[in-house]
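Running co-folding for tryptophan.
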Amino acid sequence: MSDNPPLFGSQQASPHGREGQMASLEQLVLDLCDRDLRENALLELLKKRVIFQDLAPLLWHSCGTIAALLQEIVSIYPFLSPPNLSPSQSNRVCNVLALLQCVASHPDTRILFLNAHMPLYLYPFLNATSKTKPFEYLRLTSLGVIGALVKVGDTEVIGFLLQTEIIPLCLRTMENGSALSKTVATFIVQNVLLDDIGLRYICATAERFFAVIQVLSTMIESLSEQPSMRLLKYIIRCCLRLSDNPRACEALQDHLPKLLTDRTFDRCLREDPLTCRWLQQLLLNVYGELGAQQLH
Ligand code: TRP
């Protein structure tokens, strides 16, 4: 595809000037509405998203842009079931999702994104269970958007995600996903738990609590074969947070993952003092001072 023809005279006069760049940014956003120009515009905008801090509001408030991005997303729904997604289809939608991630991360558009129920359009991708690369990549990128949303710890965000049942979707990825998507899904669950509403939600029934602790335990076991410091850290933080709920804390006495109590991870935790302290606090919360001493 050829370069975008300059739309404004000023661009020719000073192609590298700020004005010229702004014009081309606006043009690229407009190009998203044109099917023929969309793919190139997507790639160019992704390259520029770091420099242009106000890309998110521009995407959100320009006419037809979000509709065009949604059109790209829903256009691959028919290929989810039965699973039949080509790498290039997946790649194209992942680029769309990466742009939406800007919108989800930007403080001025986050709540607008949420109020428009945008995360719901990603749930079909999280629901798909095929383990092929195109599906895996799509899940990981979708989780990235949700991860960007939960990062700030806004109760409104957490409430919406809980209501729309994000937890079972995350648990599914934590059980079956690739190492990377497991990590992002666990990060999301961690941030949900850190919110008071989230902790209350997960601890509201025994079924929910056990579903979560069981998945965390299974992941811990697989960590002893394939270590990941980041994943271990999120898992320990999840368990520590669960121990803030009195009933969950009591249940953890019998259900804390064994490998967390037997020094399996001592060596890798030496390099991460914060996570090491979290684990000590967790053992203290669950087993009390005497019990924790006996373990160590
Ligand atoms: N509707 C289910 C519930 O509210 C959703 C759910 C399934 C769930 N598995 C979970 C919620 C695990 C929390 C944890 O229980």
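Result summary
The chain has 18 helices and no strands.
The pocket of tryptophan is lined by residues 165, 167-168, 171, 202, 207-208, 211-212 (CB under 6 Å).
Job closed.
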